[in-house]
Amino acid sequence: MRPRVTLVLAIVAVLLGGVMLVPAAYGKLSGGGALPSLGSIGGIGGGTEHVPAPTPTPPPPPTLADAPVSVNFQGKFFSWALMDRKTGKISGAPNMTSTNSTESMIKAWIVSDYLRELGSKPLSAARKKQAVTAIRDSNDISAEALYNAGGRRPVLERLIKMCKLTDTKIEPTRAKWAYTQMSPRDAVRMGDCIGDGTAAGPKWTKWVLNEMANVRGSVKDQKSDAVQGGHWGIIDGLPDSITSQGPVSIKNGFTMLWADVQWHVNCLAVTDDWTLAVMMRYPQSKGLSYGAKVCASVATQLVTPQPGAALKVPQQPVGKL
Fold first, then answer.
1. pTM of the prediction?
2. Distance from C-alpha of 133 to C-alpha of 211, rounded to nearest angstrom
3. 3-state DSSP call for residue 123?
């Protein structure tokens, strides 16, 4: 073999050996194995760069939001309203500006108004007991005492002014608190007024909301004017996914009014995010439990997203409102 050919072959051998040694040496220095093929580097040869998938954003927690409500209601009057407390938007039934007698629902305002007007003065043990029982037991005697202490009619005038109510009318003869005419739209405004501290003031708002969250007694616990069970209605229609987020403050109003032989039933609930009111009148024969179930049904239908939303459950047609 001629010397020139031998020299060329020797140079080629050295070069090839260097190419083989460099990756091996790099692998030892880096502590890894063999380098990836050229096809996986920088997209050469159609390789794919692997990027970690982004962490999915969890969905917002369930809440109440405007939605179609269908109730096979059998009575003279049925309406509801819902306020989104984050935006102030009110949605509800087409007749949400029509009114019903407030009954005991307004006791939450009577207590709040007394405490706000009390100012920096100490709350006596007797007045505190009246405030507790007026809300927790819907005690009529306690509510009347606080209403008288607040000046009667001025209590309701302050309600209309401070909560910016537009549909509410005071009973003209003796300004009886139970006979105050209020719409569902105004009821959720009142609920928001209690929730945002306007009603009871900064010192007492949390206390009032806590009392409303601890209303006691079922529809069967109607022992007297002093003890009327009021833990039912909207609260029964809310799933654990909502009630577990924080306290739900409620105050129901109810009576079988002999003037028209009708149940007058109202349900009010307040949370940090929303306030809901359901109001109705229906025949005596149906009993209080009928109204409690209607309030629960409305609340359930407004839950967003609906549990098992993929399943479509047929709803009954809306009855006469």
1. 0.80
2. 9
3. coil
